[in-house]
Amino acid sequence: SVTPYNAMAFVNITLQTFAGLWINGFIVSVLCVAWVKKKIFNSNNKILLFLGCCRFGDLCITWVFSFLSIIYPQCFYVHPMPQMFSSIRTFLYFCNLWVSACLCGFYCIKIANFRLTFFIYLKIKIDRMVPWLFLVSVLFALVMGILDYDITYTAIVKNLNSTTLKNFWAASVKIDEHLHTMFLIIGFTLTTMFTVVICFALLLLFSLWRHKCRMQANSMRNLSMDVHIKAIKSILSFIFLYSISFTGSILSLIHANKMETLLMFFILIFQYALPVTHSLILIFSNPKLEKTFLRTL
């Protein structure tokens, strides 16, 4: 039977999904058309295109999973459906988070102005590093997907194979220890990624704010200063959204066994706010995308 929680969660996911699919599909289509026309594709557009594809896939698989959970939940009792869905969702979700982190780092290295030798070296080499960042992102997300597959297999399949009460209790103890270790690994990875993103964002924010203060001191109120202010607002928005997504991911690990609660409903909203809202911010931060977006509307 469909509970109020399931209905609320499904309506929320449906609204987020269709909004996110439209926004990210728009980014991907516009960038692809520009690539075909100009035959030139800079590193910034490559990251935006890859990020849009990851978020598009993430939203699609989340909606399909939610739809099947309500309409045909029996399919998740068939091996290996639960493991496959869970691992694919984790793979795409971590691709989304990792490429978002790469985009933040790319902007920091390209835009920020620091006189450190290593920073200058990265500024020169960053364009060549973008394909490698994509490869690392995919491999990293693949590892997380495999870990999630193992977690789901251990929690569901091995648990179902324990027939007697004694074997079931012994298996449950081993499963809890195994899941605890896996959750610690995923939690540590999420925390490390979040720390790196925040450091990059704060460095870029500090550099832009310092440059803005210099222009104000020299009474240089011009178009360049307005661009800097807009960039600062975009970075603050990204920090806020990434923090919300990180909080949702950590809470989903902590409350993994309490799925039918109001808390999990809000966690779901927090966790999938990033691929929808941040993509919209990226559109309005890019003059070409913004112009095309407004013309399309």
UniProtKB/TrEMBL annotation:
Q: Tell me the superkingdom of the source.
A: Eukaryota
- Report the principal subcellular site: membrane
Compartments, record wording = Membrane
Report the membrane topology from the UniProt record.
Multi-pass membrane protein
Which positions carry the signal peptide feature in this UniProt record? Answer: none
Enumerate the UniProt keywords alphabetically: G-protein coupled receptor, Membrane, Receptor, Sensory transduction, Taste, Transducer, Transmembrane, Transmembrane helix
Name of the featured protein: Taste receptor type 2
